[in-house]
Amino acid sequence: MEIKRIITAIVLNEHGVLSRISGLFAGRGYNIESLTVAPILETELSRITIATKGDERVLEQILKQLHKLIPVLKVLEDEQIVEQESVLVKFDKKEFLSELSVIFNSYNGKLVEVNDKYAIFMACDNHERINGLLKAIRSYKPKDVARSGILAIESH
Predict the structure, then answer these.
(1) Are 11 and 46 within 8 A, CB to CB?
(2) What are the pLDDT tens digits along the chain (156 aa)?
(3) Rounded distance, CA 36 to CA 1, Å?
(4) Residue (of 80, 85, 87, 89) closest to 150 by Cα position
(5) Pick from 27, 36, 94, 99: CA 20 to 30 A from residue 78's CA?
(6) CA-to-CA distance for 82 and 114, rounded, in angstroms?
(7) Where are the beta strands (DSSP E) in the chain?
(8) Pick from 53, 43, 51, 61: which is nearest to 81 by CA?
(9) Would you kindly state where each structural domain of the chain is located, as residue ranges?
(10) Whole-angstrom Cα distance, residue 139 to residue 123?
(11) Has domain 82-154 been given CATH number 3.30.70.1150?
């Protein structure tokens, strides 16, 4: 049975770290569903957040392999993190702005730009709720959707 897992790795911010981590996944046939990377303020470290799927055995292997990589200092999993995802959605029809505003507000979102050609909304919520938002707005025929990938931070 496949399980979705969010893994956050704290790594040394050095050349080639991301390619070693992505190579670990590719070399073993593991899929990365989303990947975000950013430096940690005032340190020589970066946070890499990976969303992946697999059965318990595959996920256990991923974690063991991540711990073995030299530049990885810490690996956190679902229970140890708070996660969020952002989405930007563009619409070319402006007659539904008030309806869309109500929908986006219920998903921690808002209207961020509107002009004579399009309207762009954004929302920030957990992955499942972002999926729910995208289902809720499907009938409004979004012109474009850009998702951030999952961001995560240690919860304790």
Answers:
(1) yes
(2) 888 889 999 999 888 888 989 888 888 788 899 999 999 999 999 999 999 988 888 888 888 888 888 788 888 877 788 999 999 999 997 789 999 999 999 999 999 999 999 999 999 999 999 999 999 999 999 999 999 989 988 887
(3) 26
(4) 85
(5) 27
(6) 31
(7) 3-12, 32-39, 45-54, 72-76, 81-91, 109-114, 119-125, 144-154
(8) 51
(9) 3-77, 82-154
(10) 18
(11) yes
State the chain's maximal CA–CA distance in angstroms: 54
Report the distance separating Cα 124 and Cα 76, nearest Å: 22
Q: Of 88, 102, 93, give the one whose Cα is nearest residue 130.
A: 88
Task: Give residues with Cβ within 8 angstroms of 25, minimum separation 6.
Answer: 31, 32, 50, 52, 62
Residue carrying structure tokens 């961001």: 151
H/E element, 61: helix 56-68
Joined tokens for residue 127: 């992955």
Query: pTM for the full model?
Result: 0.81
Query: Listing from the earlier edge strand, what are the strands of the sheet with 45-54?
Result: 32-39, 45-54, 3-12, 72-76
The CATH H-level superfamily of 3-77 is ACT domain (3.30.70.260)
